[in-house]
């Protein structure tokens, strides 16, 4: 006897990034659609077979996507904006990829010999998928949107698996989450209002699946973990009443994940669905309510293996936690599952030959998580069959808990020693400003950049050669010095006021620091999809964090030695490092953040000692880390701000602290930004026509701000007049003495041919501003 194991989704990218290479080859015109689709089919088959071989009872299908599952659904239901030129009928690959990536306007010869897409169309907008680092394409819906089934993808996937003799449970994104995540192209209408028109398409999909022999479908409604409006709750009600009635033979496993269902749980549990999946990793306390309230016929899928992190589970603790549910509901009404799709974790730990052996025994990637599910499935019914595995789990948990690799007494002492003075600057901002103005003597509207200059093919090539051992450390360093020197010379030449060293030595703004801090590990193959064919390898924070030695000091010192102008010290902030890593689960995120902050504080202090008058601490991902529920925002922002204080307050009032944030809805976090009390913040604003400054104006934000005037996401070179106009808009909202002139973000992804004229224009724009009232 055992409890059924169920998986909610498996990574699509292939253990050796096969999907990325197939996509890029197709986009480059080096291979045809048939080859791409063949690779995709092979990956799906491999995933199904792996799950079958691991003993997973309920295997998902239609969890695969060539680019993004939200885009897939939009295309499947015919929600294709007119600009993409779709005329009805099946949607071809080029239309799909035009929605994903934009089309350049270059003619592209499809396999059929026809020429598609004669004109350029931008891609759909892309945004963060809940609080993950996965990004989805935002569907665009009109008030008069019609929906039609262009292809029954869950059915195709189900049949494809069936042909391999694997009976699957197809997955589809639920209609309410889909509509809620979509954006409306017209003001004053809520996309959820389109539900009545969308439901018939779902009904058709369900009916066809049922006719083909599917018995269950997994319907993902992660919106269940968000704050929902009454109309959204009503929409969920309407959806599951309707779908249950139209196709009674197809059982629905309604999946809410990425958190506690919270105030939505009582309603969710009453919905007329056959099954409910809950995330017990992030919401373990739900067990109590489930014990009390689960209706008699409902099947529960218990999300007990962490689909968002890479740690090996404490299997014994999980079995203990779910034991009351097992005895109350019985084995047949339970399934054991990961908390969410395994999309968000890397595929296979066994590929990490270079990773420290002890650390490896604490980790589980997607493949290993399948093994854990299997152990839990049989152990939940009867532990005697899996004693060996449970003992191994105990040993791993105990070893990690007591390992000296994880616990550093020195770090604990420092954390305990945090006091109030480490959380504030000496004087208030205006007094600091007077001292800094006196020291720095910058003109009005000072010009600067955000830190990085182009990572040219030569820079990348040189780094790759160094990493491979093809060139020596000293040759690599000599090369970087040369790049840095010419960047400094060039910045002086065009008359920028505050210079940067250019970050040529950095592979990535988080990895560069992680590699020099203790407590971090890096992988070779542990890729996770960020969007489309873009994958990242997040660092793993496994232990107490400290800084063995200075990280950026020598580069700053060298750059500053070349010029009389101030060069900013350039660091990544603790919250950003945290939000872009896999974080240990045995310590509160707030404490991990504080540890990183203290390490950065040491670097800040060293930079100041070496003579840096300005130090920038980037918090690009601060807004990204906001919890899904508003009730949790304050706690997060409190420790995020505290972390910024911990790293930035060890300096004299004469030292100017900068920070940088990429595009954000600043009105949600303006209070926290003000509390951070950076002397200068640079932000991404060029595309919003400075509307984002409204949050700062209405808050009466007192400190200095550099609103970006150069859209670094585009190869286009902005004219002087454009940038002057943007700054004039900024002057309408803030005082002249507050304003800096800078690009939206770092320039690492641009080419020098674009950056040079753009920054020359930017400096010219600042001159115009200085001479106009
Ligand atoms: N200093 C970093 C750079 O210029 C900041 C990048 C970011 O905010 N994403 O590249
Ligand atoms: Zn940025």
UniProtKB/TrEMBL annotation:
Q: Which residues form the Cobalamin-independent methionine synthase MetE N-terminal domain?
A: 5-327
Q: Taking every annotated instance into account, which residue ranges of this chain make up the domain Cobalamin-independent methionine synthase MetE C-terminal/archaeal?
A: 445-767
UniProt xrefs under SUPFAM superfamilies: UROD/MetE-like (SSF51726)
Q: Which residues bind Zn(2+) 2?
A: 662
Where along the chain is 5-methyltetrahydropteroyltri-L-glutamate bound? 17-20, 128, 133, 580, 624
Identify the catalytic residues: 713 (proton donor)
* Pathway where this protein functions: Amino-acid biosynthesis; L-methionine biosynthesis via de novo pathway; L-methionine from L-homocysteine (MetE route): step 1/1
What the entry lists under CDD domains is as follows: CIMS_C_terminal_like, CIMS_N_terminal_like
The positions annotated for binding Zn(2+) 1 are 660, 684, 745
- Catalytic activity of the protein: 5-methyltetrahydropteroyltri-L-glutamate + L-homocysteine = tetrahydropteroyltri-L-glutamate + L-methionine
Cofactor remark? Binds 1 zinc ion per subunit.
- What biological-process terms (Gene Ontology) are attached? methionine biosynthetic process; methylation
Give the E.C. number(s).
Answer: 2.1.1.14
Cofactor(s) recorded in Swiss-Prot or TrEMBL: Zn(2+)
Q: What class of enzyme is it?
A: transferase
Q: Which UniProt keywords apply?
A: Amino-acid biosynthesis, Metal-binding, Methionine biosynthesis, Methyltransferase, Repeat, Transferase, Zinc
- Binding-site residues, L-methionine: 450-452, 503, 618
What does the UniProt function comment say about this protein?
Catalyzes the transfer of a methyl group from 5-methyltetrahydrofolate to homocysteine resulting in methionine formation.
Q: Which family does it belong to?
A: Belongs to the vitamin-B12 independent methionine synthase family.
What's the protein name? 5-methyltetrahydropteroyltriglutamate--homocysteine methyltransferase
Q: What is the organism field in this record?
A: Rhizobium hidalgonense
């Amino acid at each position: 006897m055992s409890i059924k194991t169920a998986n909610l989704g498996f990574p699509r990218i292939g253990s050796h990034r096969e999907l990325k290479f197939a996509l890029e080859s197709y986009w480059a015109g080096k291979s045809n659609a048939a080859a791409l689709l063949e690779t995709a089919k092979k990956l799906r088959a491999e995933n199904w077979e792996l799950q079958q071989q691991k003993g997973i009872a309920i295997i998902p299908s239609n969890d695969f996507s060539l680019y993004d599952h939200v885009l897939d659904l939009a295309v499947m239901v015919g929600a294709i904006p007119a600009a993409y030129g779709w005329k009805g009928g099946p949607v071809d690959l080029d239309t799909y990829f035009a929605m994903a990536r934009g089309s350049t306007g270059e003619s592209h010869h499809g396999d059929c010999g026809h020429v598609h897409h004669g004109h350029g169309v931008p891609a759909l907008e892309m945004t963060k998928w809940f609080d993950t680092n996965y990004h989805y394409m935002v569907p665009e819906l009109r008030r008069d949107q019609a929906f039609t089934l262009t292809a029954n993808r869950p059915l195709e996937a189900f049949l494809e698996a069936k042909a391999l003799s694997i009976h699957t449970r197809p997955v589809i994104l639920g209609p309410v989450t889909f509509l809620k995540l979509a954006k409306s192209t017209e003001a004053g209408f809520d996309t959820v209002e389109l539900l009545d028109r969308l439901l018939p398409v779902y009904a058709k999909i369900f009916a066809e699946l049922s006719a083909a022999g599917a018995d269950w479908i997994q319907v993902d409604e992660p919106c269940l973990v968000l704050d929902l409006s009454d109309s959204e709750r009503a929409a969920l009600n309407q959806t599951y009443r309707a779908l249950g009635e139209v196709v009674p033979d197809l059982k629905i496993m309604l999946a809410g994940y990425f958190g506690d269902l919270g105030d939505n749980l009582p309603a969710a549990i009453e919905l007329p669905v056959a099954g409910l999946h809950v995330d017990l990793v992030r919401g373990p306390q739900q067990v109590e309510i489930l014990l009390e309230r689960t209706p008699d016929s409902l099947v529960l899928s218990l999300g007990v293996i962490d689909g968002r992190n890479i740690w090996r589970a404490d299997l014994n603790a999980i079995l203990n936690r779910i034991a009351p549910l097992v005895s109350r509901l019985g084995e047949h009404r339970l399934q054991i599952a990961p908390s969410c799709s395994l999309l968000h974790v890397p595929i296979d730990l066994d590929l990490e030959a270079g990773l420290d052996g002890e650390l490896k025994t604490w980790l589980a990637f997607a493949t290993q998580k399948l093994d854990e599910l299997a152990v839990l499935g049989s152990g939940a019914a009867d532990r005697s069959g899996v004693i060996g595995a449970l003992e191994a789990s105990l040993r791993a948990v105990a070893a990690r808990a007591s390992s000296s690799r994880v616990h550093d007494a020195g770090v604990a002492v420092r954390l305990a020693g945090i006091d109030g003075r480490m959380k504030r600057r000496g004087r208030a901002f205006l007094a600091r400003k007077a001292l800094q103005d006196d020291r720095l003597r910058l003109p009005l509207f000072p010009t600067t950049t955000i830190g990085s200059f182009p990572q040219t093919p030569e820079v990348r090539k040189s780094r790759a050669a160094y990493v491979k051992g093809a060139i020596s450390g000293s040759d690599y360093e000599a090369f970087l010095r040369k790049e840095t020197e010419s960047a400094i010379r060039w910045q002086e030449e065009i008359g920028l006021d505050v210079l940067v060293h250019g970050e040529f030595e950095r592979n990535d703004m988080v990895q560069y620091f992680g590699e020099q801090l203790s407590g971090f590990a890096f992988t070779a193959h542990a890729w996770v999809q960020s969007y489309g064919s873009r994958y990242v390898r997040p660092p793993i924070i496994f232990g107490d964090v400290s800084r063995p030695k200075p990280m950026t000091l020598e580069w700053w010192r060298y750059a500053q030695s070349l010029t009389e102008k101030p060069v900013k010290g350039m660091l990544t902030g603790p919250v950003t490092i945290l939000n872009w890593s896999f974080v240990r689960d045995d310590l509160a995120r707030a404490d991990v953040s504080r540890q990183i902050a203290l390490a950065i504080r040491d670097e800040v202090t060293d930079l100041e000692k070496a003579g840096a008058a300005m130090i920038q601490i980037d918090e690009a991902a601060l807004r990204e880390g906001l919890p899904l529920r508003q009730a949790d925002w304050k706690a997060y922002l409190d420790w995020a701000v505290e972390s910024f204080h911990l790293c930035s307050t060890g300096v004299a009032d004469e030292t100017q602290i900068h920070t940088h944030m990429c595009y954000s809805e600043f009105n949600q976090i303006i209070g926290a930004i003000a509390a951070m009390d950076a002397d200068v913040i640079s932000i991404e604003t060029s595309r919003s026509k400075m509307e984002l400054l409204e949050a700062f104006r209405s808050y009466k934000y007192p400190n200095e701000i550099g609103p970006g005037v150069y859209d670094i996401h585009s190869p286009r070179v902005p004219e002087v007049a454009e940038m002057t106009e943007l700054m004039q808009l900024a002057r309408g909202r803030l005082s002249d003495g507050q304003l800096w002139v800078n690009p939206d973000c770092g320039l690492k992804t641009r080419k020098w041919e674009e950056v040079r004229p753009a920054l020359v224009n930017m400096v010219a724009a600042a001159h115009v501003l200085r001479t106009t009232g």
